[in-house]
Write a structure and sequence with these properties.
By secondary structure, this protein is mainly alpha-helical. It has four helices and three strands. The chain has helices at 5-14, 43-50, 54-63, 79-97, and strands at residues 40-42, 69-71, 74-78. It has a three-stranded antiparallel sheet with strand order 1-3-2. Strand 2 (69-71) and strand 3 (74-78) form a beta hairpin. The model is unreliable at 3-22 (pLDDT under 50).
Length: 98
């Protein structure tokens, strides 16, 4: 018997194999499931998201251009802070183009 889309996703997640699914992956588009966006990212994850080096990430944090929080000894970057930094870059590039 074929598995329904949401059952495949649930099985995949419970097996420790998280992946995004899209409506084309399921038999019923009303049951499409997307992974929730994380609220906090580790510096290494922010590096990958922003395509920046570790030293540049920490420099942005020191300069106040990228907000971060600490949980114990871990430095974490809120998803909103990443979005705000990207918006800041877009705003600055528009200002330079004018």
């Amino acid at each position: 018997m074929a598995q329904r889309g949401s059952q495949r996703v649930a099985q995949s997640l419970s097996a420790g194999n998280p992946r995004r699914t899209y409506p084309s992956d399921t038999t019923d588009t009303r049951e499409a499931f997307t992974m929730p966006t994380k609220a906090l990212y580790r510096v290494s994850e922010a590096m990958a998201i922003l395509s920046l080096s570790r030293s540049v990430i920490y420099e942005l944090i020191r300069n106040g251009r990228l907000r971060s929080v600490k949980e114990g000894t871990a430095r974490l970057i809120p998803a909103q802070a990443i979005a705000e930094y990207v918006a800041l870059l877009e705003h600055e590039s528009i200002g330079q183009a004018a």
